[in-house]
Amino acid sequence: MRELKGRINSVHSSQKITGAMKMISSARLRKAENKLLQAEPYRRKLWEIYAHIEKSGCEFQSPLTVKRQVKKVAIVIFASDDGLCGAFNINLYKKLVEEVQAYQKRGIREITVFPVGKKILAEVKRIKGIRLARHPEAFEKKDYMAATRELADELMEDFLKGKYDQVGVVYAHYKSMGVQIVRLRSFLPVAVEPEEKIETTDRLGTWYIYEPGCEQILTMLYPLMMHALMYDLLMENKTSEQAARILAMQMANDNAVKLLGKLQLEYNKLRQQGITSELLDIAGGSNRESKATEVLLYWM
User: Fold this and answer.
1) Nearest-angstrom CA–CA distance, 52 and 67
2) At a CB cut-off of 8 Å and minimum separation 6, what does 248 contact?
3) Do 224 and 148 contact (CB within 8 A), yes or no?
4) Beta strand pairing status for 72-78 and 166-174?
5) Residue 194, preceding peptide bond in cis (omega within 30° of 0)
6) How far apart are CA 46 and CA 285, in angstroms?
7) What whole-number distance in Å separates Cα of residue 126 and Cα of residue 156?
8) Helix or strand or coil: residue 56?
9) Is 80 helix (H, G, I), strand (E, B) or coil?
10) β 180-188/166-174 pair status
11) 148-186 burial by CB neighbour count: b if 16+ within 10 A, else e?
12) 187 to each of 18, 31, 129, 152, how far by Cα in Å?
């Protein structure tokens, strides 16, 4: 009974911790969702400008959009710095391993991985045939806007130098509170995903005059688009992380309630058994005492 009482107290303490972590993650989820929503209009406007220029028939092709024969690849993987978020990091790691193996089957041997997140670093080190690269220190300071800008600039510079022929980002897409989808998003060369395509509807056949010209505008626009995209992917991953942690803590709470019910039932059974044994001992002692009294009276 003493052992069961200790286990019940231990489960109670764990339940309080998971409940507190669930509340903290809920607050962080709202903050992450707000940041994601606040960044959306800016990113969407950049893609809208790009769609207008593309529709105008501009023939300029930026070096960032050139598709080359893929021999050297870089993969950025976003994960979490903290644990207790269920299978969140494991699913990201599995996706990374799947993509690395797919590249290796195609004969690509120069694969560089940028792990962002303390919980994924040790796992990535175990993958054979890859080279690890350090992410910007701004990630450690939680300055995500500066960090993603620095990382995007580094990748674009290396892409232009020919250090990489293709760059992708593994992250968790935030679809809803209960659904987070692990994806590989192509980052370089610049490409518009089908769900990101924006239909431009010009009123009354409006004509746009580009100053100083579409080439100069696109040269400035592409880096801004890449900065916004990298930040958007990171914030989606951060939002998915908090959603996954809330679900994990909720499951932990539910399991704690079930375990407490079983332990309490077992404790009550043992307690009832102890009480019954004491009552039987008392009844047996009383019976023996009455018999001894009868024998004594008989001899007297």
Assistant:
1) 22
2) 84, 85, 86, 88
3) no
4) parallel
5) no
6) 91
7) 27
8) coil
9) coil
10) antiparallel
11) bbbbbebbbebbeeeebbbbbbbbbebeeeeebebbbbe
12) 37, 26, 22, 9
Beta strands in the chain (DSSP E): 72-78, 110-116, 131-132, 166-174, 180-188
Residue 116 CB burial class (10 angstroms; 0-12, 13-18, ≥19): buried
Give the whole-angstrom CA distance, residue 293 versus residue 2: 39
Residue type, 33: E
Per-residue pLDDT of the chain (300 residues; tens, 9 = 90+): 788 788 888 888 888 888 888 888 889 899 989 998 998 899 888 888 888 887 777 778 889 989 989 999 999 999 998 888 888 999 999 999 999 999 999 999 899 999 999 889 888 988 988 999 988 888 888 889 999 999 999 999 999 999 999 999 999 999 888 889 999 999 999 887 655 555 555 544 556 677 777 888 889 999 999 999 999 999 999 999 999 999 989 888 888 888 888 888 887 887 777 777 766 666 666 555 555 555 444 555
Q: What are phi and psi of 154, to 5 degrees?
A: -65, -45
Q: For residue 216, which phi and psi values (nearest 5 degrees)?
A: -65, -40
Instruction: Please give the distance of CA 146 from its chain centroid, rounded to a whole number.
Output: 20
Q: What six digits make up the tokens of 2?
A: 């003493």
Q: Please provide the size of the chain in residues.
A: 300
What residues contact residue 166 under an 8 Å CB cut-off, 6+ apart? Answer: 68, 70, 72, 73, 74, 186, 188, 189
Amino acid at 214: C
